[in-house]
Amino acid sequence: MSDRATAPASGAPSRTAAVIPAAGRGVRLGPGAPKALRAIGGTPMLVHAVRAMAASRAVSLVVVVAPPDGAADVRHLLDEYPLADRDSTRTDVVVVPGGETRQASVRLGLAALPDDVTAVLVHDAARPLVPVDTVDAVAAAVREGAPAVVPALPVADTVKQVEPRTGERAGEPEPVVATPERAVLRAVQTPQGFDRRTLAEAHEKVALEGEGATDDAGMVERLGVPVVLIPGHEEAFKVTRPLDLVLAEAVLARRRANDGF
Ligand code: CTP
Ligand code: MG
């Protein structure tokens, strides 16, 4: 077992928290409320995401990172949609304001963690339907000593590296640079699980230009710390574009129908 994942001192309490970055605007989803507040099956995406984290027995604290000027609204919203009964007594939910990039938002979420938290799951609010089994599997792998654990799936499409044409040149044909062998590629999901100190160190030391890091594990890789993948789940897909909302509604409807029998 890695010493990175051991408790701070013998007998010291230790627990697992989830940080949910939910501060994005959802530009690719189109006009409307901030993405995390858009409804699926009548319930805001963020509420689904909080419930998915709280449903894991491993998680005893959830830190929601709200839009920078929207923390009070998000707090009120979460109070309107309580967690499922069996979870409400043992999972605390804290709301903090986020930042301009996902990386900044995660960093602000980490800063709100109490000292006794030794393991952290970072989960996109934009992945509202992740099954609890996936959350449990990530948390278990971290508790067993892996410093960084990521759920992932094989990619369906062949992926090409290009010279991007953006800004004034957007829409022009893009020259292809390389075609990585599809069999060695994986599409990564969240929750990504970390030893808390390892993730905090990554957020202190790794600074990325522009949009910042889109993936926490990528920052940990830059520290030279090993990152491992475990099987992800189709239903942990990210709601990014309008068609993803259609899929999310269908997945939820199927779940509700199955639960009825
Ligand atoms: N996120 C965040 N703070 C930001 C930007 C993004 O907390 N400044 C969060 C989003 O709320 C989302 C997750 O990071 O839960 C993944 O980001 P993405 O899917 O890109 O969401 P948005 O940034 O909201 O969407 P878009 O890029 O289309 O604007
Ligand atoms: Mg974004």
Automatic annotation (TrEMBL):
UniProt keyword Nucleotidyltransferase present: yes
Q: Where does the signal sequence lie?
A: none
Q: Recite the UniProt keywords alphabetically.
A: Isoprene biosynthesis, Nucleotidyltransferase, Transferase
- Tell me its EC number(s), please: 2.7.7.60
Q: Which Pfam families match?
A: IspD
- What reaction gets catalysed by this protein? 2-C-methyl-D-erythritol 4-phosphate + CTP + H(+) = 4-CDP-2-C-methyl-D-erythritol + diphosphate
**Site for Transition state stabilizer, residues:** 28, 35
Top-level taxon of origin? Bacteria
Q: Where is this site: Positions MEP for the nucleophilic attack?
A: 182, 238
Query: What does the entry give for GO biological process?
Result: isopentenyl diphosphate biosynthetic process, methylerythritol 4-phosphate pathway
Q: What are the recorded GO MF terms, alphabetically? A: 2-C-methyl-D-erythritol 4-phosphate cytidylyltransferase activity
For the keyword Calcium, the answer is: no
Provide the top EC class: transferase
Q: In which pathway does it act?
A: Isoprenoid biosynthesis; isopentenyl diphosphate biosynthesis via DXP pathway; isopentenyl diphosphate from 1-deoxy-D-xylulose 5-phosphate: step 2/6
Q: What family classification does the UniProt entry report for this protein?
A: Belongs to the IspD/TarI cytidylyltransferase family. IspD subfamily.
Q: What does this protein do?
A: Catalyzes the formation of 4-diphosphocytidyl-2-C-methyl-D-erythritol from CTP and 2-C-methyl-D-erythritol 4-phosphate (MEP).
Record protein name field? 2-C-methyl-D-erythritol 4-phosphate cytidylyltransferase
Q: Which organism is it from?
A: Streptomyces triculaminicus
